[in-house]
């Protein structure tokens, strides 16, 4: 039996699912792509190739090996994108909660059935159909659970809006003792610089009391201010529009003082080191072209 345990985003990681770029299949057409950054690269002729992305994920895996983290990989589905393990399910406390993901990505969860079979079935939760929720929008943070959503009445027109109010309410009911705080995120189907695809594309906690944040990722200033009040302005590393586009907020914590980051994120990596953290720098710029980065590629199962 696999005993899951996740209370927050940064405690020492023991076991994780890491997605895979193997057998990713042919480059999607513009119509098949489901995020604006992938579309941008398809149009520019710079969409990433499998071999480069496999290398980047191998580098990530090596960091996990270095820190003795147990790594699970999805079973390969032929010609299918399985990089972003984060979104297909998520763990809070000892529960494995299946996401209700974009139909285009539905098969990704089948590849983890071998892992789900190792979890006590009473701990595996399947939300009802009206619930839309993806793991990139969900962040347990001790007494809080942060959730990214989109509250616009045009929700159904946005393929980039992945978590709805039913999703937020579902988590509130499942965890009545937690403070569930939802954040209304900016969405664009055509401009990745104005699209917070998931909460982890514009915010993520780091260390014990810090965070990375892009103010304009939030539709409501009050939501941004909630985080400023909770963390303290001096503890938040503010990123600009271009840095959000490069996905600076999507690094990944192995511990409160160990962060895996992209090697070109110089301004962020220096700030992390200045705050006493070890930064494991790896190349991840090719995967970034699909509007996801390090946090998006992982699904933590056990943290201390
Ligand atoms: N948590 C995340 O932000 N995941 C990235 C998912 C990117 C993928 N291209 C998608 O649109 O679903």
From TrEMBL:
EC class, as a word, reads hydrolase
Reactions catalysed, semicolon-separated, are: L-arginine + H2O = L-citrulline + NH4(+)
Q: In what pathway does it function?
A: Amino-acid degradation; L-arginine degradation via ADI pathway; carbamoyl phosphate from L-arginine: step 1/2
Q: Name one Pfam family in it.
A: ADI
Return the EC number: 3.5.3.6
Q: What is this protein called?
A: arginine deiminase
Species whose genome carries this gene: Neptunitalea lumnitzerae
